[in-house]
Structure formats: C-alpha cells, structure tokens
C-alpha cells in the first residue's frame, strides 16, 4: 500500500480516537460492506454503506482502501458523487488474464460529494470485483469518511483474539465462503433428491401395475370356482 494512504489512515485514526470520546453514540451505526456473493473466485458487487456523518456534520467524501489481493476494481457511478480511482504501481507486474501484463492496480476509490450528504441520510457505493480463491479469508476495506467538520477513520482491524464487534470504528469487511459446485456434470442435492423421487414414483407405478394384474387373475379364478 502506498505511503500516502498509510499516512492518511494514521492521521485519520487519531481523529477517530478523539471522536470516540466526543460522540460514542454515532459509532453505533458503522460504515459497512456487503456482497451479492461471497463465494471465492466469483465476480461480486460490493456495496459500501454510509449511514451517517461525523458527529452531526455532513459527509463530503469517502475514501475506500482496496485490499492488495485485488489488481482491478470497477466502481459504479453514483450521480451524487464524483468518483476517482487512485492507482498504485505493481512491482513486479502481474498477468491481466488476457495475455498481457498489469503494471498498476486500484489502491483506493474516492467518492467526493457534489452536495454534502446530510447526517440524517445515507448512501451507498458499489464496487465490482473478482473475489480471490481463498475461502475463509476476511478482506478488509478501511474507509476514511471526511465531513464538513472533522472526519472518521473506519480502519480498526481485529488482531488474533480480538472481536471486531468491540471496536468503535471497525474497518468494513467481507469473509469469503467456499464456492458452490459448478454445473459441469456435478449433481446438486436437489437434483439427487429429484432423481430419488422420480425413481420411487416409477417403482410405485410398477408395483401398482403388478397388483392390478394379480388382482385380475385372482378374480378370474374366483369366477371359475
């Protein structure tokens, strides 16, 4: 991660500590990130939610730091905000998946409000990414929320043995899950159940037919006697 981002996070972290004493109630509604899928290796749209301002002050910008595992991020346009991708050089370059090389990556996405977002309103930002193939990994997206007065650093990351729910300003995070079976010949539980039900239905019909035949034969023998 580039030094400018680290410097901003450190400075904003100090401001966040100060705000924690001034307005602990504000931190109850955290900046969060959710995903339309958390399956490892899949394309996903991440939604970053901004629920309030800074101790009553309107939000003017939100800088979202992108984990180093991502080499490409596509932000969604939000008509209320200007969007900027802050690039970082990759050394060494990485393959781009199309026979070429990628020499830089999106290290940060910054949304700047055309009109400051009032404290009592919320907004969301969407980022399109391809998730890494590492089920169980938690990805953190530290965010710096700047307001007309003050700022808040949502950058606290739980170390081993810590619980993020205890933090006042936790970094938004997503935990990856195992990918589901693909469609190339794999049979899902639902398919297996359906096949089982179909097999039982055929067997039941067969038994019914045998019963009809046996019943008819018995009736014929009864009439003859």
TrEMBL record:
Does this UniProt record's set of keywords contain Membrane? yes
Cited Gene3D superfamilies: Uncharacterised protein YcnI-like PF07987, DUF1775
Keyword flag Signal = yes
List all membrane-crossing ranges: 200-220
Keyword terms, alphabetized: Membrane, Signal, Transmembrane, Transmembrane helix
Q: Which domain of life is it from?
A: Bacteria
Q: Where is the YncI copper-binding domain?
A: 30-176
* InterPro entries xrefs: YcnI-copper_dom (IPR012533), YcnI-like_sf (IPR038507)
Query: Which Pfam family is an annotated match for this chain, by its short name?
Result: DUF1775
Signal sequence extent: 1-29
Q: Mind telling me what this protein is named?
A: Nuclear export factor GLE1
Q: Which organism is it from?
A: Hoyosella subflava (strain DSM 45089 / JCM 17490 / NBRC 109087 / DQS3-9A1)
